[in-house]
């Protein structure tokens, strides 16, 4: 029983890390897109 609980805890922790990493990557990509657009706009001025 202890092994099952420990295994579930590890799986939940790994799933949470994946989710946070994915959200971080999405935010980073959005920031890069905004930065690129800002640079393009500034170059056109």
Task: Describe the 3D structure.
Helices cover 96% and strands 0% of the residues. The protein is mostly helical. The longest helix has 43 residues, at 2-44.
Fill in the keyword field for this structure.
45 residues; mainly alpha; 1 helix; 96% helix; rod-shaped
At a glance:
By secondary structure, the protein is an all-alpha fold. The protein has 1 helix and no strands.
Furnish the topology, listing elements before pairings:
Blueprint: H1 2-44
* Rg calc: 20 Å
- Low-pLDDT segments, ≥5 res: none
Amino-to-carboxy terminus distance = 67 Å
**Main pleated-sheet profile:** none
User: What class would the helix/strand composition place it in?
Assistant: mainly alpha
Mean pLDDT metric: 81
